[in-house]
Specification:
Length: 319
Protein backbone atom coordinates (compact mmCIF):
# COMPACT_ATOMS: atom_id res chain seq x y z
CA UNK A 1 0.00 0.00 0.00
CA UNK A 2 1.51 3.33 -1.06
CA UNK A 3 1.03 6.48 0.98
CA UNK A 4 -0.34 9.38 -1.03
CA UNK A 5 -0.50 13.07 -0.26
CA UNK A 6 -3.72 13.74 1.69
CA UNK A 7 -6.01 16.58 0.74
CA UNK A 8 -6.16 19.50 3.16
CA UNK A 9 -8.13 18.65 6.34
CA UNK A 10 -8.61 15.04 5.14
CA UNK A 11 -8.46 12.51 7.95
CA UNK A 12 -5.62 10.04 7.52
CA UNK A 13 -5.74 6.73 9.40
CA UNK A 14 -2.49 6.38 11.33
CA UNK A 15 -0.26 3.31 10.93
CA UNK A 16 -2.86 1.81 8.59
CA UNK A 17 -0.64 -0.58 6.65
CA UNK A 18 1.20 -1.67 9.79
CA UNK A 19 -2.06 -2.40 11.63
CA UNK A 20 -3.53 -4.37 8.73
CA UNK A 21 -0.41 -6.55 8.52
CA UNK A 22 -1.48 -8.36 11.71
CA UNK A 23 -4.78 -9.47 10.16
CA UNK A 24 -4.55 -12.02 7.28
CA UNK A 25 -6.91 -11.65 4.33
CA UNK A 26 -8.52 -15.06 5.01
CA UNK A 27 -9.69 -13.90 8.44
CA UNK A 28 -13.32 -14.76 9.20
CA UNK A 29 -15.40 -13.36 12.05
CA UNK A 30 -16.06 -10.05 13.81
CA UNK A 31 -13.54 -7.21 13.89
CA UNK A 32 -14.35 -4.68 16.61
CA UNK A 33 -13.22 -1.14 15.88
CA UNK A 34 -13.63 0.19 19.42
CA UNK A 35 -12.82 3.78 18.47
CA UNK A 36 -14.27 3.93 14.99
CA UNK A 37 -13.66 7.60 14.25
CA UNK A 38 -14.19 8.25 10.56
CA UNK A 39 -13.88 4.55 9.72
CA UNK A 40 -10.57 4.47 7.87
CA UNK A 41 -9.15 1.39 9.58
CA UNK A 42 -12.49 -0.43 9.31
CA UNK A 43 -12.84 0.38 5.63
CA UNK A 44 -9.38 -1.02 4.94
CA UNK A 45 -10.15 -4.18 6.97
CA UNK A 46 -13.40 -4.77 5.08
CA UNK A 47 -11.60 -4.38 1.77
CA UNK A 48 -8.75 -6.70 2.74
CA UNK A 49 -10.80 -9.39 4.52
CA UNK A 50 -14.03 -10.25 2.63
CA UNK A 51 -15.22 -12.63 5.40
CA UNK A 52 -14.89 -10.06 8.18
CA UNK A 53 -17.81 -8.19 9.75
CA UNK A 54 -17.11 -4.89 11.51
CA UNK A 55 -18.64 -3.81 14.80
CA UNK A 56 -17.79 -0.12 15.06
CA UNK A 57 -18.08 1.82 18.31
CA UNK A 58 -17.69 5.55 18.83
CA UNK A 59 -18.99 8.09 21.32
CA UNK A 60 -18.92 10.95 18.81
CA UNK A 61 -22.22 11.02 16.89
CA UNK A 62 -20.80 13.29 14.21
CA UNK A 63 -17.94 10.87 13.57
CA UNK A 64 -20.40 7.96 13.44
CA UNK A 65 -22.43 9.76 10.81
CA UNK A 66 -19.35 10.26 8.63
CA UNK A 67 -18.28 6.64 9.14
CA UNK A 68 -21.75 5.38 8.25
CA UNK A 69 -21.58 7.17 4.90
CA UNK A 70 -18.08 5.87 4.28
CA UNK A 71 -18.93 2.24 5.09
CA UNK A 72 -22.40 2.11 3.52
CA UNK A 73 -21.01 0.30 0.48
CA UNK A 74 -20.31 -2.74 2.69
CA UNK A 75 -23.99 -3.01 3.57
CA UNK A 76 -24.76 -5.79 6.08
CA UNK A 77 -21.10 -6.39 6.96
CA UNK A 78 -21.13 -3.34 9.26
CA UNK A 79 -22.88 -2.57 12.56
CA UNK A 80 -22.29 0.81 14.19
CA UNK A 81 -22.99 1.63 17.84
CA UNK A 82 -22.97 4.98 19.62
CA UNK A 83 -21.10 4.25 22.85
CA UNK A 84 -17.82 4.68 24.70
CA UNK A 85 -15.21 1.96 24.32
CA UNK A 86 -15.35 1.46 28.09
CA UNK A 87 -18.70 -0.26 27.36
CA UNK A 88 -17.03 -2.76 25.03
CA UNK A 89 -18.30 -5.84 26.85
CA UNK A 90 -21.93 -4.68 26.91
CA UNK A 91 -21.81 -3.75 23.22
CA UNK A 92 -19.94 -6.79 21.95
CA UNK A 93 -21.29 -9.66 24.08
CA UNK A 94 -24.59 -9.95 22.13
CA UNK A 95 -22.42 -10.75 19.08
CA UNK A 96 -20.27 -13.44 20.70
CA UNK A 97 -22.07 -16.19 18.79
CA UNK A 98 -19.63 -15.27 16.03
CA UNK A 99 -15.91 -15.36 16.87
CA UNK A 100 -14.35 -11.97 17.59
CA UNK A 101 -11.09 -12.24 15.70
CA UNK A 102 -9.74 -8.73 16.11
CA UNK A 103 -10.13 -5.65 18.28
CA UNK A 104 -8.62 -2.26 17.48
CA UNK A 105 -8.46 0.91 19.55
CA UNK A 106 -6.96 4.02 17.95
CA UNK A 107 -6.71 6.44 20.87
CA UNK A 108 -6.00 9.52 18.78
CA UNK A 109 -8.26 12.49 18.15
CA UNK A 110 -9.63 12.58 14.61
CA UNK A 111 -9.14 15.42 12.16
CA UNK A 112 -12.91 15.96 12.32
CA UNK A 113 -12.55 16.89 15.98
CA UNK A 114 -9.25 18.77 15.74
CA UNK A 115 -10.43 20.81 12.77
CA UNK A 116 -13.79 21.70 14.28
CA UNK A 117 -14.20 25.41 15.00
CA UNK A 118 -16.74 24.68 17.76
CA UNK A 119 -15.56 21.64 19.74
CA UNK A 120 -12.66 23.29 21.57
CA UNK A 121 -10.02 20.65 20.79
CA UNK A 122 -7.75 23.08 18.96
CA UNK A 123 -6.32 26.48 19.83
CA UNK A 124 -6.37 27.38 16.13
CA UNK A 125 -9.97 28.52 16.59
CA UNK A 126 -11.58 30.67 19.25
CA UNK A 127 -14.19 28.32 20.70
CA UNK A 128 -15.72 27.35 24.05
CA UNK A 129 -13.49 25.00 26.06
CA UNK A 130 -15.47 21.80 25.64
CA UNK A 131 -13.24 18.92 24.39
CA UNK A 132 -15.78 16.20 25.23
CA UNK A 133 -15.73 13.40 22.67
CA UNK A 134 -19.48 13.07 23.15
CA UNK A 135 -20.95 16.56 23.21
CA UNK A 136 -24.35 15.17 24.20
CA UNK A 137 -23.03 13.50 27.35
CA UNK A 138 -23.55 14.84 30.86
CA UNK A 139 -19.80 14.88 31.45
CA UNK A 140 -18.14 18.15 32.36
CA UNK A 141 -16.40 20.32 29.81
CA UNK A 142 -12.84 21.57 30.21
CA UNK A 143 -14.21 25.00 31.14
CA UNK A 144 -16.26 23.42 33.93
CA UNK A 145 -13.27 21.36 35.02
CA UNK A 146 -11.12 24.50 35.35
CA UNK A 147 -13.88 26.23 37.29
CA UNK A 148 -14.27 23.53 39.94
CA UNK A 149 -10.81 22.05 40.57
CA UNK A 150 -8.20 23.32 43.00
CA UNK A 151 -4.91 24.74 41.84
CA UNK A 152 -3.13 21.58 42.98
CA UNK A 153 -5.57 19.29 41.14
CA UNK A 154 -5.23 21.26 37.89
CA UNK A 155 -1.44 21.28 38.14
CA UNK A 156 -1.29 17.55 38.86
CA UNK A 157 -3.56 16.68 35.92
CA UNK A 158 -1.57 18.82 33.48
CA UNK A 159 1.73 17.33 34.63
CA UNK A 160 0.54 13.74 34.88
CA UNK A 161 -1.07 13.65 31.45
CA UNK A 162 1.42 15.79 29.53
CA UNK A 163 4.63 16.06 31.57
CA UNK A 164 4.38 19.83 31.17
CA UNK A 165 7.11 21.30 33.39
CA UNK A 166 5.26 24.61 33.81
CA UNK A 167 2.10 22.88 35.08
CA UNK A 168 2.11 24.58 38.49
CA UNK A 169 2.56 28.04 36.99
CA UNK A 170 -0.23 27.38 34.47
CA UNK A 171 -2.57 26.15 37.22
CA UNK A 172 -1.77 29.14 39.43
CA UNK A 173 -2.55 31.61 36.64
CA UNK A 174 -5.81 29.79 35.78
CA UNK A 175 -6.97 29.98 39.40
CA UNK A 176 -5.87 33.61 39.77
CA UNK A 177 -8.03 34.55 36.77
CA UNK A 178 -10.93 32.58 38.21
CA UNK A 179 -10.65 34.37 41.55
CA UNK A 180 -10.73 37.73 39.76
CA UNK A 181 -14.02 36.78 38.13
CA UNK A 182 -12.36 36.14 34.75
CA UNK A 183 -12.42 32.34 34.39
CA UNK A 184 -10.73 30.66 31.43
CA UNK A 185 -13.62 29.55 29.21
CA UNK A 186 -12.32 29.67 25.61
CA UNK A 187 -9.53 28.05 23.65
CA UNK A 188 -7.92 31.39 22.86
CA UNK A 189 -7.84 32.42 26.51
CA UNK A 190 -6.25 29.13 27.57
CA UNK A 191 -3.73 29.03 24.72
CA UNK A 192 -2.63 32.61 25.41
CA UNK A 193 -2.27 32.00 29.14
CA UNK A 194 -0.24 28.82 28.62
CA UNK A 195 1.98 30.40 25.98
CA UNK A 196 2.88 33.19 28.39
CA UNK A 197 3.44 30.78 31.26
CA UNK A 198 5.55 28.33 29.27
CA UNK A 199 7.38 30.74 27.01
CA UNK A 200 8.79 29.37 23.81
CA UNK A 201 11.58 29.43 21.31
CA UNK A 202 11.41 29.93 17.58
CA UNK A 203 12.85 26.45 16.98
CA UNK A 204 10.13 24.71 19.04
CA UNK A 205 8.20 22.33 16.80
CA UNK A 206 4.91 22.46 18.67
CA UNK A 207 2.80 25.26 20.12
CA UNK A 208 3.52 25.71 23.86
CA UNK A 209 -0.16 25.01 24.68
CA UNK A 210 -0.23 21.62 22.93
CA UNK A 211 0.63 19.55 25.99
CA UNK A 212 -1.84 21.35 28.26
CA UNK A 213 -4.69 20.95 25.76
CA UNK A 214 -3.84 17.24 25.49
CA UNK A 215 -3.83 16.75 29.27
CA UNK A 216 -7.18 18.46 29.79
CA UNK A 217 -8.77 16.50 26.94
CA UNK A 218 -7.54 13.23 28.46
CA UNK A 219 -8.90 14.26 31.87
CA UNK A 220 -12.46 15.21 30.88
CA UNK A 221 -12.83 12.13 28.67
CA UNK A 222 -11.33 9.79 31.31
CA UNK A 223 -9.12 8.31 28.61
CA UNK A 224 -6.42 6.92 30.91
CA UNK A 225 -8.85 5.83 33.60
CA UNK A 226 -10.73 3.39 31.38
CA UNK A 227 -7.88 2.05 29.24
CA UNK A 228 -6.65 -0.82 31.43
CA UNK A 229 -10.17 -2.14 32.04
CA UNK A 230 -10.85 -1.94 28.30
CA UNK A 231 -7.82 -4.11 27.57
CA UNK A 232 -8.94 -6.75 30.06
CA UNK A 233 -12.45 -6.78 28.56
CA UNK A 234 -11.08 -6.96 25.02
CA UNK A 235 -8.87 -9.95 25.77
CA UNK A 236 -11.79 -11.69 27.47
CA UNK A 237 -13.93 -11.25 24.36
CA UNK A 238 -11.34 -12.31 21.77
CA UNK A 239 -11.49 -15.81 20.36
CA UNK A 240 -8.34 -17.93 20.56
CA UNK A 241 -5.88 -16.61 17.99
CA UNK A 242 -7.61 -13.24 17.85
CA UNK A 243 -5.47 -10.09 17.78
CA UNK A 244 -5.77 -6.92 19.81
CA UNK A 245 -4.13 -3.80 18.37
CA UNK A 246 -3.87 -0.47 20.19
CA UNK A 247 -2.52 2.80 18.79
CA UNK A 248 -1.50 5.36 21.41
CA UNK A 249 -0.36 8.97 21.15
CA UNK A 250 0.88 9.63 24.66
CA UNK A 251 3.65 8.05 26.73
CA UNK A 252 1.33 7.31 29.66
CA UNK A 253 -1.15 5.51 27.38
CA UNK A 254 1.67 3.50 25.84
CA UNK A 255 3.02 2.49 29.26
CA UNK A 256 -0.44 1.26 30.30
CA UNK A 257 -0.77 -0.82 27.12
CA UNK A 258 2.75 -2.23 27.50
CA UNK A 259 2.22 -3.08 31.17
CA UNK A 260 -1.20 -4.65 30.52
CA UNK A 261 0.09 -6.77 27.64
CA UNK A 262 3.02 -7.99 29.78
CA UNK A 263 0.69 -8.82 32.69
CA UNK A 264 -1.66 -10.69 30.36
CA UNK A 265 1.26 -12.58 28.83
CA UNK A 266 2.11 -13.93 32.30
CA UNK A 267 4.99 -11.60 33.19
CA UNK A 268 4.80 -10.86 36.90
CA UNK A 269 5.73 -7.30 37.87
CA UNK A 270 5.67 -7.84 41.64
CA UNK A 271 8.78 -7.15 43.74
CA UNK A 272 11.04 -10.27 43.78
CA UNK A 273 10.66 -10.81 47.53
CA UNK A 274 6.86 -10.73 47.52
CA UNK A 275 5.76 -14.27 48.52
CA UNK A 276 2.54 -14.21 46.45
CA UNK A 277 1.90 -12.54 43.10
CA UNK A 278 -0.52 -9.63 43.49
CA UNK A 279 -0.28 -8.00 40.07
CA UNK A 280 -2.71 -10.44 38.44
CA UNK A 281 -0.27 -11.82 35.88
CA UNK A 282 -1.86 -14.59 33.83
CA UNK A 283 -0.80 -16.01 30.49
CA UNK A 284 -3.56 -15.16 28.04
CA UNK A 285 -1.61 -13.30 25.35
CA UNK A 286 1.41 -13.62 23.12
CA UNK A 287 2.88 -10.15 22.61
CA UNK A 288 3.55 -9.63 18.89
CA UNK A 289 5.34 -6.28 19.14
CA UNK A 290 8.32 -6.47 21.46
CA UNK A 291 8.81 -2.78 20.75
CA UNK A 292 6.04 -0.45 19.56
CA UNK A 293 5.72 0.18 15.84
CA UNK A 294 6.03 3.87 14.96
CA UNK A 295 5.34 5.78 11.74
CA UNK A 296 8.05 6.01 9.12
CA UNK A 297 9.49 9.27 7.84
CA UNK A 298 7.13 9.31 4.84
CA UNK A 299 4.00 8.95 6.97
CA UNK A 300 5.14 11.63 9.40
CA UNK A 301 5.85 13.98 6.52
CA UNK A 302 2.47 13.39 4.90
CA UNK A 303 0.61 13.34 8.22
CA UNK A 304 2.44 15.31 10.95
CA UNK A 305 -0.26 14.34 13.47
CA UNK A 306 1.06 10.78 13.34
CA UNK A 307 4.45 11.70 14.79
CA UNK A 308 3.71 10.47 18.34
CA UNK A 309 1.74 7.34 17.37
CA UNK A 310 2.79 3.92 18.68
CA UNK A 311 1.21 0.59 17.77
CA UNK A 312 1.31 -2.45 20.05
CA UNK A 313 -0.35 -5.77 19.25
CA UNK A 314 -0.86 -9.13 20.94
CA UNK A 315 -2.51 -12.44 20.08
CA UNK A 316 -4.80 -14.38 22.41
CA UNK A 317 -3.54 -17.88 23.10
CA UNK A 318 -5.64 -20.98 23.79
CA UNK A 319 -6.33 -21.71 27.46
Amino acid sequence: MMLVEPAQNEHVSVLLEETLSFFPSELSGIFVDATLGLGGHSEAMLMKCPKVFVLGIDQDKEALSHAESRLRKFDDRVTLVHSNFENLRDVAEPNTGTPIVGILADLGVSSLQLDSEKRGFSFRFDAPLDMRMDTKSSGETVAEFLMTRSEEEIANIIYQFSEERASRKIARWIVERREKGEPVTTTTQLASLVARAVGGRAKDKIHPATRTFQALRIAVNREIEILEEFIDDAVGLLSDGGVIAIITFHSLEDRIVKRSFLRLSGKCSCPPRLPVCSCGAERKLEVLTKKPIVPGETEMRLNPRSRSAKLRTARKIAN
